[in-house]
């Protein structure tokens, strides 16, 4: 299944666990995102469990849980899965307990590596067996240089994630992938990554929660939704962060969501599936789209001002055309104005 699917009941009633991204989904920097608390609170009320799964490796789970709680989304540390914890899990697949690991990152990564039984060092001269690298605002040239020296000497390079950018309250900032890129540029060594889109974190979170029907909620196609596809879990793309509805229409098959919604309130809604017509249109509750000679054509439903169903139809039409070997011309795809995004 590479297209959108339908759900005739609210998602929170169909799936028992939501793996929820943080930046761009639950909050933006230190600011809440509209309807996040209401959507997730409603999901809990319907019996859905939550685990907040973030590629941010700089913070402790306790700190993340405290911020969520302050924003009206009550959460405990056991409901947070960070890329730092996933990175420590990856290290454990190859290294013996007590092995030296050079940590480049913040408190969250330091704690996770120590809790996994490794010895944390700060210099390449300590002869670490691995370098664990995660984002932290304080990471600078000195730490990146030590990482490069260690990797050049044979240390295994494990990145918490490869996100190139990070949504903040003031705008889009460089992410861990940009910092990892500096080490890769200096060494020529491609690191292993523990974070999304690797399915490692998702699978660890599902195992921890004991869930049987998990789903993923995220704003980024390349990490959140790509990770969902890699793990084999349905993914909901919310339009409150990095990637827009237009991006979804043009998404690579490995990054396509199963559902699209304006924000986290969409977890409390049923989701119609687009249907194909004999005339080549894809329709969702009257909103239709098709691809003709490589160009996307749209036909809004009468009286529908949300454009969300039009977006669903556009995704279905564009994806079907791409899968048939005739991808849509990106210039013909508009930015659909879904309210609230």
TrEMBL record:
Pfam families to which the protein is assigned, alphabetical: Hydrolase_6, Hydrolase_like
Gene Ontology molecular functions: phosphatase activity
Gene3D superfamilies: HAD superfamily/HAD-like (3.40.50.1000)
One GO CC annotation: cytoplasm
Protein name, per record: Haloacid dehalogenase
Organism the protein comes from: Cellulomonas aerilata
């Amino acid at each position: 299944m590479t297209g959108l699917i339908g759900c005739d009941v609210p998602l929170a009633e169909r799936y028992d666990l939501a793996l929820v991204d943080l930046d761009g989904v639950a909050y933006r920097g230190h600011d809440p995102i509209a309807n996040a608390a209401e959507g997730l609170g409603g999901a809990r009320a319907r019996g859905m469990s939550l685990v907040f799964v973030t590629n941010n490796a700089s913070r402790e789970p306790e700190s993340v849980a405290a911020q969520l709680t302050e924003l009206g989304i009550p959460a405990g540390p056991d409901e947070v899965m960070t890329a730092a914890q996933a990175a420590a899990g990856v290290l454990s697949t190859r290294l013996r307990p007590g092995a030296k690991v050079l940590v480049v990152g913040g408190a969250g990564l330091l704690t996770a590596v120590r809790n996994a039984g490794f010895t944390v060092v700060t210099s390449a001269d300590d002869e670490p067996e691995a370098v664990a690298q995660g984002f932290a605002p304080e990471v600078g040239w000195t730490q990146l240089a030590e990482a490069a020296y260690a990797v050049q000497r044979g240390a295994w390079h494990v990145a918490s994630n490869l996100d190139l950018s990070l949504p903040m309250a003031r705008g889009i900032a460089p992410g861990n992938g940009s910092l990892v890129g500096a080490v890769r540029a200096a060494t020529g060594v491609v690191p292993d990554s523990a974070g999304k889109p690797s399915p490692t974190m998702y699978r660890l979170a599902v195992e921890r929660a004991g869930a049987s029907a998990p789903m993923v909620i995220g704003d980024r196609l390349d990490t959140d939704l790509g990770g969902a596809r890699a793990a084999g879990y349905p993914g909901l793309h919310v339009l409150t962060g990095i990637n827009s509805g237009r991006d979804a229409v043009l998404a690579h098959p490995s990054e396509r969501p199963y559902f699209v919604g304006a924000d986290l309130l969409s977890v409390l809604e049923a989701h119609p599936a687009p249907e194909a017509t004999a005339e080549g249109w894809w329709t969702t509750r009257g909103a239709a789209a098709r691809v003709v000679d490589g160009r996307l054509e749209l036909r809004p439903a009468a009286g529908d001002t949300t454009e969300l169903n039009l977006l669903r139809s556009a995704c279905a039409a564009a994806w079907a055309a791409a899968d048939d070997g005739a991808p849509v011309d990106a210039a013909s795809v508009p930015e659909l104005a879904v309210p609230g995004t």
